[in-house]
Each structure stands twice: as structure tokens, then as C-alpha cells.
Amino acid sequence: MMNKVFTAGAAILAVASANPIASPQISPIQPFFALPQSARFDNDQGLPGVAASPIGIYDDIYWQGFSLAITGSVQNVFIVEPNTGSNLAAFARNDLATISQGQPAMTVNYADSTIDHFDLSSFYYACVYATEASIAAKPQSCTLTIRGYKDDAAKQLVAEQSFDFNVGVFQTNAQMSKADVSIAFRNCT
Hints:
Layout: E1 3-8, E2 12-18, E3 34-39, E4 47-48, E5 53-58, E6 61-70, E7 79-81, E8 87-92, H1 96-101, E9 105-107, E10 115-130, E11 138-139, E12 142-149, E13 157-165, E14 173-175, E15 177-180
Parallel strand pairs: 4-6, 7-14
Antiparallel strand pairs: 1-8, 1-10, 2-3, 2-10, 5-6, 6-8, 6-9, 10-11, 10-15, 12-13
């Protein structure tokens, strides 16, 4: 069965703030510090072209409903090229991670988390027409909508933004698009 697969960034960029740590270097007036991170998934190993390995926790953020995949196809036809590295986070409606973990989300609300919140800055994305187990994926035009929440129950919406990914009807290869996220995506959980 074919469906649209959302391919989230080879370089999803997030800035996270950690909980206070007792240290002489941290001022009592400023108990939190920002730690810029770029999630490239370069140190994880997915399956070539197959989104079958749930990501789980990566760079202190829980990637709920996303799977790790390695880009590339047998003939380098029907492919979306990531902007960095060879790995990417992928979401498909019928993906193993999505079925077992639920709606795709990035969250800092998990057991033993040391992160209070994160700020989403930008990410690269694309959409393809494929199955979750395809080794080839034809780029597909789509609109991607992201939402940021301030609370763990996802009831306090702080931001919502949509991005378009456009490809030609007969286009078989595409580069990921960069989504520059609104400043409203700060202090998300």
C-alpha cells in the first residue's frame, strides 16, 4: 500500500535548555543555559531507504513516532537527498514507530529527562510517495503543518506554522527544503 511519507530533516535544528545544575560557573540569577544542537542522526544506524527503526531519544529529545532511515535508492532514482549526512527522521502513517508510539512529535517529557523545554529554529523536510519499507521514494508535493505546545498534555498551543513542498509531476529526485520556524516556537515541551 502506498502512502505519503513525511521525511523530516537530515538536520533538524533545535535549541534546548537544560535544568539547573549546581556549578560555580552558573549564576544563581541565570539558572538555565541554552545548548544549541543540530540533530543529524549521523551516529545512529538505520536501514537503507527503509523507515523501520524507531528513533526514540536523540540529543535529549524524544522523537515519538519517527523512524531512522538511510537515504539512497538502488539506482539513485526516486529519491529525496538530505541536506547533511545520510540519515534522516521519517514519518509514515503505517510506519512501525508511528503505530507503536502514536502521533509524531518531538518532546522533552520522558522519564529521566534533564531538559525543561526546547526552542525549534529550523529543519529540512520533504514528502515522498512510498511505503514505509520502500527503498525508492518519489518526491511528492505536500503541505506540512507543525505545532508547538507549552504543556505536556499538548493543550497550550503556542505556535502553528505550515510549509509547502513543491515538486513537478514527473520529477523523480528532489532536495529537502529548509523550514525557517517562527520565533513563537520557543519554550516548547
